[in-house]
Amino acid sequence: MAPGPGFSDEKNETLCESESTVYVHNPHLDGMKDDILYHFNLGTSTHNLPAMFGDVKFVCVGGSPWRMKSFIEYIAGELSLEDPKAEYPNICAGTDRYAMYKIGPVLSVSHGMGIPSIAIMLHELIKLLYHARCTDVTIFRIGTSGGLGLEPGTVVVTKQSVDATFLPRLEQVILGNTVVRSTDLDQGLAEELLQCSKDLGQFETVIGNTMCTMDFYEGQARLDGAFCSYTEKDKQDYLTKAYESGVRNIEMESSVFAAMCKLSALKAAVVCVTLLDRQKGDQLISSHEVLHSYQQRPQILVGHLIKKMLQTSASVAVLDKKTVSV
Amino acid sequence: MAPGPGFSDEKNETLCESESTVYVHNPHLDGMKDDILYHFNLGTSTHNLPAMFGDVKFVCVGGSPWRMKSFIEYIAGELSLEDPKAEYPNICAGTDRYAMYKIGPVLSVSHGMGIPSIAIMLHELIKLLYHARCTDVTIFRIGTSGGLGLEPGTVVVTKQSVDATFLPRLEQVILGNTVVRSTDLDQGLAEELLQCSKDLGQFETVIGNTMCTMDFYEGQARLDGAFCSYTEKDKQDYLTKAYESGVRNIEMESSVFAAMCKLSALKAAVVCVTLLDRQKGDQLISSHEVLHSYQQRPQILVGHLIKKMLQTSASVAVLDKKTVSV
């Protein structure tokens, strides 16, 4: 199998504008009169994308539309950008496929469940950032997951996203042929998130591998799906092997998120809270309140880092100004 | 690769109750005190599932929550079960993962986009129907798709769901091993739907193979994604091969829908309208109104068949009553 569909890490002069641009790798796009981002209900001829999104520096994505609305409310407060009278309108209100919210430099987008669902969203998000001429964008997936050998509520920042055989790769079928893409994530960003957790001191955070599966039940060795042809021992053996390979949590989107962000030169991190320890059970029996409080942890962690990064860039801007005026 | 994870077509005496029951294939389920259907926000200890769902005979599933609400309103009218004052409440109101509506014997459930998203829903739906002791259930997926060699607006009833190499199979990874499942659908039900279209005379309907892909852009040979490493000719060659193998439309959920319904002995059909001819383009440039009217066609077709089947069963009941009273 080829290492990828012809995209090297080297700069493609015809497609990339600068080091910090969001890259698309599609020579056909520039020849299109309009580009309809169908699942967002947005388009280049119907919306002024540079005016709407040109200032975006941070994108947070997560499965649930409700959670992504709650994140924009939270980050507005953290960045002191909130207006008590303001509603945060869903920018994709004309469709129910995804929900999108924006405040200042932060965009929050839902992606549904599973690799295909997040992949559609990312294709259109990457094109949106490209059309809007965004630069220096950092992207976070904030999600939920099953944990391995961790107390429920622990946050896992992904080192590598691995498949169900514990390999750090994504297999995609293009024109009927399987191509393999790298699922590397930004290690520096992961370390910064770990440091944020230490600064905050509110909950446990670890860096570990994340297993990305195509199914929640049989695909994650659960015993409580409609179908199950294996024993409790088979399940435990599989999860033990996963743990031994470095896997600390299991979810359903990280591999294609990592692969597509890498191809687009988006600095990316995956930050998921563990809702249960899969070696101790399959069902989510914790109370609604407990699960809800766990789900806020990736928001708090990412919110803290965004605030820190914005403060740093503001200090740099002040410093630059001083240097110029000297 | 094995032909499946140990589920034969033969009756499993320990798990199946009768010919018409909805089957689960999981010996662990009966040992569980409660079963939390997490993504529906329903459970066996919190809800009386037989009372809520025991009368369900038809389930319609589709990607969009809005469309599934509109279907329940439509079918309520068709079956003269509507109450002009009634709102149809979302049974899964406590979660934003899926939406679910019910009127009389008809259940309408959204499933999001892609195989993983519909698979989670189907695991929990099959368990719901099993816990509710439903019998003789027929299930339809009503969706949208890209067409091949068909006028936009044509409805395709799926003969076989095939993968991106045109083979009628679903590969699933269970405990790290790939298993292959059959994607056969009920041919009699497909023929009945075709007959309904003839009865209605409102739009074109064909029976053909449906290609089920993991991605909307590169996975369906589109030229308008964020990434594209092939030419227009490569795309056309691939779509021509698909057409020659019998594929008439392309979507993202039919294979796992077919496989899981077959395992559960649910009589199943996939009914998707084509929104465009993929050999002529990639973008959805038709007006909102035109696309909306196309999306109603699978609803109209399935609604007509449900009405017909209920009328037939009512006639049989009257006939039975007469026979008894003779």
TrEMBL record, chains A, B:
Domain Nucleoside phosphorylase: 57-306
Signal peptide bounds: none
Keywords: Glycosyltransferase, Transferase
Keyword match Transferase: yes
Pathway it works in: Pyrimidine metabolism; UMP biosynthesis via salvage pathway; uracil from uridine (phosphorylase route): step 1/1
Binding site for phosphate: 97, 141-144
Enzyme Commission (EC) number: 2.4.2.3
Domain of life: Eukaryota
Residues involved in substrate binding: 220, 222
MF term (GO), any: uridine phosphorylase activity
Catalytic activity: uridine + phosphate = alpha-D-ribose 1-phosphate + uracil
GO cellular component: cytosol
Record carries keyword Glycosyltransferase: yes
Annotated GO biological process: nucleotide catabolic process; uridine catabolic process
Gene3D superfamilies on file: Nucleoside phosphorylase domain
Family of this protein: Belongs to the PNP/UDP phosphorylase family.
Entry function: Catalyzes the reversible phosphorylytic cleavage of uridine to uracil and ribose-1-phosphate which can then be utilized as carbon and energy sources or in the rescue of pyrimidine bases for nucleotide synthesis. Shows broad substrate specificity and can also accept deoxyuridine and other analogous compounds.
Protein name from the UniProt record: Uridine phosphorylase
Organism: Oncorhynchus tshawytscha
